[in-house]
Amino acid sequence: MTLPTDPSVKPILQLDHVSRRRAGRPAVRELTLNLQRGQVLGLLGVNGAGKSTTLSMIAGAMRPDSGSIQLDGSDFLEQPELSRRLVGWLPERAPMWPELTVSEHLDAHGHLRHLRGAALKQARETIIERLELQPLARRLAGVLSQGQRQRLGLACALLHRPALLVLDEPANALDPIQVAALRVLIREQAAAGTAVILSTHLLAEVTAVCDRVAILHDGSLRHEGPVHADDHAALERSFFEIAMNHPTANAA
Amino acid sequence: MSLFAVTRLEWRRLLVRPLAWVLAALTQAWLAWTFTLLLGGFLASQIQRAALPDGPGLTDLVAVPLLGQLAQLAFLVVPLLSMSLIAGERRNGTLPLMLAAGVPASRIVLGKYLALLGWLLLWLLLTLAMPLALSHATHLDWGKLAAASLGVALMLAALTALGVACSSFASHPAIAAAAALILALALWSVNLGAQMAGINGGAINWLAMSTHVQPLLRGLFSTADVVWFVLLIVLALALATRRLNADRERG
Q1: B41-62 average pLDDT score
Q2: Does the pLDDT value for residue A251 go beyond 70?
Q3: Which long-range contacts (CB under 8 A, 24 or more apart) does A184-188 make?
Q4: Which of A59, A100, A145, B128 is deepest in the core (most CB within 10 A)?
Q5: Interface confidence (ipTM) of the complex
Q6: Which of B14, B90, B97, B106 is best to mutate for the A interface (most A CBs within 10 A)?
Q7: Which residues partner with B17 through β-bridges?
Q8: Cα A226 vs. chain centroid, distance in angstroms?
Q9: Do B99 and A61 touch (CB under 8 A)?
Q10: Which residues are registered as beta bridge partners of A167?
């Protein structure tokens, strides 16, 4: 089963029967997904459903045991360096180097992604302004609140203008105003042609920003389809039906 | 490019962490005190040594013992500075960020290695500046000093590689430091039993780091000694790279 997409448009991301075991258990099983530029895909699932493992594989931090991942038509597993240019990743809990300032973080991420000189400076200033990080620019990452860390993590993910944005629980620790700003940002990125995949447990997050939803349960894709903003109840029914009727092996 | 980015990032982190500065300050103070004592001893015995035609000079009595002190301190300093290089990244959760930026594991390892080695070579240069400051007033044996400096530099490079390898395998920086210290001491004195039994050759003596450092400290340069250090460094860095690749495979 794959998400219905426009067949005339080349997907930016194609997962084909991707599987991965973690700690001796299958974390992701035979996952097949497609995502096109400009689409926002919500990855829903209870804890331990395999969302973060899936996103880590898409970001290039982890390799699948089997299956293939294509990024912009190229085999990602054969060319892991593709992630440097094409993927921006915000992992869960936004890990940081605590001894670096916000500005230094952005520089470090820029250097790792081969940005330098005027291009790096411009990218850094643009993203600092867009995410309203100016008051924090000289502050050490180690003293930021969790919400501020999320914003910095998001800035690092967006710095190099990736074609695919991978967000793992991006609304964690954000206040309602910041959540609203995040939604605007995601829609803005999608409108600019960036494909966005975000994992969340929050159904409201999916109905607010996603075009499509995929529900993972126990590592398998159990539901996929378009999201209609006015059909929150239907999504909720599907989610609870899957979650309640199929107890997870990982939760046991 | 990504190698330079990793080295630059690690340098920046070293420069802002108090540990590196505190260790540098304390060890330099200790070495300066040692230098003063050695110089005092050298000056006190100058008259007796003047009677000897080929008696030991400033290089033998001050510069080389000072480098020997630095080599001893390195057994503690290098594990403390290298412990967080990879184990710390793993604990912070920042290691996957580097892997996800498309940086190959080999460049992460090499970049971090070069950053710390750069810091340690500056530490060595600062120590060397003490005897070098006297070069205008007395005669230094430049060949012997160069060989001894090379010996200590190679030792620092080898200890750093060991530290990086231990850091890549450990889940906690403190475990990495302890492992690096024990491994370094074991490697230094692995031939102690053989030496006590009067055996001066063989594989066990070849294996010991002391066998390859001490001739250099005496001013005896041998390509075989340099090759031993290069082999150790390559092996340790290859193991660290392999471990990081396994991280990506295993998650």
Answers
A1: 82
A2: no
A3: A185/A130, A185/A131, A185/A154, A186/A40, A187/A40
A4: A59
A5: 0.86
A6: B97
A7: none
A8: 18
A9: yes
A10: A90, A198
Residue-wise pLDDT for B180-216, tens only, equals 999 999 999 888 877 777 777 788 889 999 999 999 9
Helix axes B142-169, B64-82, angle to 10 degrees: 20
Which residue in A22, A61, A89 is closest to B248 by CB distance?
A61
> Position of tokens 């590689």?
B161
| Distance between CA atoms of residues A106 and B160, nearest Å | 28
CB B179 within 8 A of CB B170: yes
Tokens found for residue B130 = 């003490």
Angle at A94 between CA A132 and CA A67, to 5 degrees: 125
Distance from CA of A83 to the nearest CA of B (A): 6
For residue A55, give the chain B residue with the closest CA: B100
- What's the token pair of residue B79? 């594990």
* Out of A89, A104, A108, closest to residue B100 by CB: A89
B157 touches B123 (CB < 8 A) = no
Radius of gyration over alpha carbons of chain A, in Å?
18
Strand ranges for A102-168 from DSSP E: 164-168
Q: How, if at all, do strands A25-35 and A13-22 pair?
A: antiparallel
Closest CA to A60 of A33, A81, A30, A37: A81
By C-alpha distance, the chain B residue nearest A98 is: B92
> Is residue A12 within 8 Å of A40, Cβ to Cβ?
no
Q: Residues B230, B233, B234, B237: what is their CA dihedral angle, to the nearest 10 degrees?
A: -170
Name which of A41, A18, A15 is nearest A194 in CA terms.
A41
Q: Closest by alpha carbon to A92, among A15, A148, A169?
A: A169
Rg value, chain B, Cα: 20
- Residue A13 and residue A35 in contact, taking contact as beta carbons nearer than 8 Å: yes
Spatial neighbors of A61 by CB under 8 A, at least 6 apart, are: A89, A91, B96, B97, B99, B100, B248
Q: Is B215 exposed, middle or buried (0-12, 13-18, 19+ CB in 10 A)?
A: middle
Which of A50, A21, A56 has the alpha carbon at shortest distance from A216?
A: A50
Q: Under DSSP, is residue A2 helix (H, G, I), strand (E, B) or coil?
A: coil
